[in-house]
Structure to design on (797 residues):
């Protein structure tokens, strides 16, 4: 195998593929990265058996040549050293060559590395996906769906299913839902221009997979193809193949958990509320749920306060656009509220409360697609 | 004037230990008891009555603390047995600590009848020996109670020293005396070494405190973990723990146990006992206004084999029901079907109510939401009448019912008042 490749393209692909490679894997060869050179270009593969990523660098694209002098072949390289080597090479082009004894030579300018490779035949074949259910989505929309939900997955393994994001399509509407049982984030998106009518609701993608996918995908209006099978999901663009295992088990039915009536509705500028809660949280104790308190006041004002007995307290009044319904005093995690306000991504938000011990909702005033739900904190 | 008694870079620590405190208080109260074998015991008429404290006269006959009453009476047929009068002990203890507080404010009570003092800054009051002598004399003159005082450069050595001469002893333990005074003692006598640790150490031919002091640190760590190193340091006279007057307020756990009226395998009876224990612990927790995140169950079997098993939780709990359920589950998981002699429940990893908040859970918030009106009412009344009238009420009623069983620990709350 031999090829000369643009270092920048190689670096980007290496970084993407590294997202799937773990030094702690039960299959030793998976600590390596597979390189495959063919007439069409170079393919890099990484996998920790939960996530598998293939990144393709075409020999030529839009008239720009990325890979030259290709002699087909394949090799597995130690992922521990390869990325740093590529990053620090002196020239814009890199030559990679293997001999019959799996010795790999990496040249760039006058620098020359010799690495021991492993037999690519020993690298497991990625499962071939025979997907029945496929749909397409613009990449920037997918990234939004991920950003608005994935932060709410559980980080604890007590209920493993909650470490994932539930994805479903019903009646032509795609919905992402994540909850750690203390807060819930959900985003709906009507699917347009789909050729086939598909629907499913059992898919739960590990939060980690989506976080990594979001890092790899660059904001773009190009589409990504998503295919679902019983236990895997595949995201595919022209040069990227991202395969993730799905979580086993039944995702709890969350729609019934969302209150459909409210007693107090506060409409308020999202940024002002966010900043005020951020300030109050400075004096809300880190280790005790980071709790702040919200109190409705007359004259369309709300009070946000944070209190830490040994340190001090902070009180701030924030003007709301409107306050309707009953008076309210409620305590909640400042972090959850800030996460939710950021995820809603709207200038004006509507916060709907049904009581100090009941979940409350945060939505944009002008659309229902993003919904954030937070459980309050009970103070004794 | 007496600066040669006070080190430049070190501390002078006292450990004041009242001698057979409960018995001594009774004798001060009723001097006709003096010189007689006296034992204070819980429930003298029941089988499970055990000796809480005994006078030196009783000890001479072989009566020991925690000995069952029937056995104590066999050792000493003339034994006078009295029920504890906690109010008397509480008052006596308060007076005793007041005397200590006349010397320095740096006092750390560790139980009703003992405490540490840091007199490093008390040079103007005389030499450590003079101060100790004065304290002992005042406690004897004013309260008619005997005590022993240990004087040393740190808490561990002071504690060991106060144990060396009883009653009415004053013992100085300097670092240079270690090999002569401390190291020859059998390992069981070291403070911090319980029966189980001692047995382990003896397996390794560590028979005396000196053996421990000179044992390989690495091996000790393997044997006892971090505590191994700590004990070895102590044996070598090293202990940096400060005398902390605030330590009184950090209760580490609240627990209670009871010996069954007869050994049993009866599930119903065991549940009833666990329920009672849970009630007691919950009552004491609410009296102290704390919540717990750890519940420990202790089972003693008919053959005196003890096991303790605990569960750590994510959320704080405080109700008797929660305590009972967790203790019950622990019992189900760990009971080996043998007859049970004693059961105990301890709530640990405590936090003060006002500092604790509970993040509600989407799958279970309903149970709290249902009580929302009640909480709201409490809130409103609090605003109208001041700090939560309900909390104070429960705390007050707890006092009057004397639910507090671990008297020694509960006591610590009200010295200084």
């Amino acid at each position: 195998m031999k090829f000369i490749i643009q270092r920048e393209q190689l670096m980007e692909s290496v970084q993407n593929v590294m997202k799937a490679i773990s030094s702690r894997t039960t299959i030793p060869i998976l600590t390596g990265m597979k390189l495959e050179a063919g007439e069409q270009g170079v393919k890099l593969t990484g996998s920790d058996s939960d996530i598998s990523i293939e990144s393709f660098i075409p020999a030529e694209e839009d008239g720009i040549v990325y890979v030259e002098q290709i002699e087909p072949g394949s090799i597995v390289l130690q992922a521990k050293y390869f990325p740093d080597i590529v990053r620090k090479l002196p020239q814009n082009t890199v030559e990679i060559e293997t001999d019959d004894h799996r010795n790999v030579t990496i040249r760039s300018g006058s620098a020359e590395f010799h690495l021991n490779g492993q037999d690519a035949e020993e690298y497991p074949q990625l499962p071939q996906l025979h997907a029945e259910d496929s749909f397409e989505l613009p990449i920037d929309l997918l990234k939004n769906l991920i950003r608005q939900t994935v932060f709410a997955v559980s980080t604890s393994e007590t209920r493993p299913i909650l470490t994932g994001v539930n994805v479903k399509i019903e009646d032509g509407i795609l919905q992402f839902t994540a909850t750690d049982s203390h807060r819930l984030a959900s985003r709906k998106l009507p699917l347009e221009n789909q050729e086939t009518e598909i629907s499913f609701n059992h898919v739960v993608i590990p939060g980690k997979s989506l976080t990594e996918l979001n890092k790899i995908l660059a904001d773009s209006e190009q589409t990504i193809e998503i295919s679902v099978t019983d236990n895997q999901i595949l995201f595919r663009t022209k040069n990227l193949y991202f395969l993730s295992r799905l979580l086993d088990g039944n995702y709890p039915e969350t729609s019934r958990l969302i209150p459909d009536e409210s007693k107090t509705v506060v409409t308020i500028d999202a940024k002002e509320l966010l900043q005020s809660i951020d300030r109050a949280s400075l004096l809300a104790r880190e280790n005790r749920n980071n709790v702040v308190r919200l109190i409705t006041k007359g004259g369309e004002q709300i009070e946000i306060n944070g209190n830490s007995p040994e340190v001090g307290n902070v009180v701030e009044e924030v003007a709301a656009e409107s306050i309707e319904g009953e008076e309210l005093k409620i305590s909640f995690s400042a972090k959850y509220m800030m996460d939710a306000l950021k995820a809603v991504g709207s200038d004006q938000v509507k916060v709907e409360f049904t009581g100090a011990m009941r979940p409350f909702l945060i939505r944009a005033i002008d659309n229902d697609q993003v919904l954030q739900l937070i459980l309050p904190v009970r103070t004794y | 004037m007496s600066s040669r008694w006070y080190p430049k870079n070190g501390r002078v620590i006292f450990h004041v230990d009242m001698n057979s405190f409960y018995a001594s208080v009774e004798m001060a109260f009723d001097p006709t008891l003096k010189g007689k074998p006296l034992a204070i015991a819980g429930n003298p008429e029941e089988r499970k009555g055990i000796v809480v404290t005994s006078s030196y006269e009783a000890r001479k006959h072989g009566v020991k603390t925690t000995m069952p009453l029937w056995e104590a009476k066999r050792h000493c047929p003339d034994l006078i047995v009295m029920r504890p009068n906690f109010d008397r002990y509480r008052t006596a203890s308060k007076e005793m600590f007041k005397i200590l507080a006349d010397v320095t404010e740096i006092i750390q009570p560790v139980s009703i009848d003992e405490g540490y003092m840091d007199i490093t800054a008390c040079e103007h009051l005389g030499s450590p020996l003079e101060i100790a002598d004065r304290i002992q004399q005042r406690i004897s003159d004013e309260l008619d109670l005997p005590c022993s005082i240990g004087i040393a450069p740190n808490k561990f050595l002071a504690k060991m020293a106060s144990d060396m001469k009883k009653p009415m002893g004053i013992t100085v333990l300097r670092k240079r005396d270690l090999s002569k005074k401390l190291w020859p003692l059998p390992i069981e006598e070291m403070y911090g070494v319980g029966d189980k640790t001692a047995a382990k150490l003896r397996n390794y031919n560590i028979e005396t405190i000196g053996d421990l002091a000179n044992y390989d640190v690495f091996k000790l760590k393997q044997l006892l973990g971090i505590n191994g190193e700590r004990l070895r340091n102590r044996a070598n006279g090293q202990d940096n723990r400060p005398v902390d007057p605030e330590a009184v307020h950090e209760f580490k756990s609240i627990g209670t146990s009871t010996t069954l009226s007869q050994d049993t395998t009866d599930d119903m009876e065991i549940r009833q006992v666990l329920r009672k224990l849970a009630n007691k612990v919950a009552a004491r927790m609410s009296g102290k206004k704390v919540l717990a995140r750890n519940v420990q169950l202790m089972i003693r079997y008919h053959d005196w084999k003890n096991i303790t098993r605990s569960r750590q939780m994510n959320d704080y709990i405080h109700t008797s029901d929660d305590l009972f359920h967790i203790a019950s589950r622990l019992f189900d998981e760990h009971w080996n079907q043998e007859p049970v002699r004693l059961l105990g429940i301890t709530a640990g990893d405590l936090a003060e109510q006002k500092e604790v908040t509970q993040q509600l859970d989407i799958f279970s918030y309903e149970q709290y939401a249902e009580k929302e009106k009640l909480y709201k009412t409490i809130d409103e009344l609090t605003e109208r009448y001041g700090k939560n009238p309900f909390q104070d009420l429960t705390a007050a009623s707890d006092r009057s019912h004397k639910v507090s069983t671990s008297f020694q620990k509960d006591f610590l709350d009200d010295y200084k008042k």
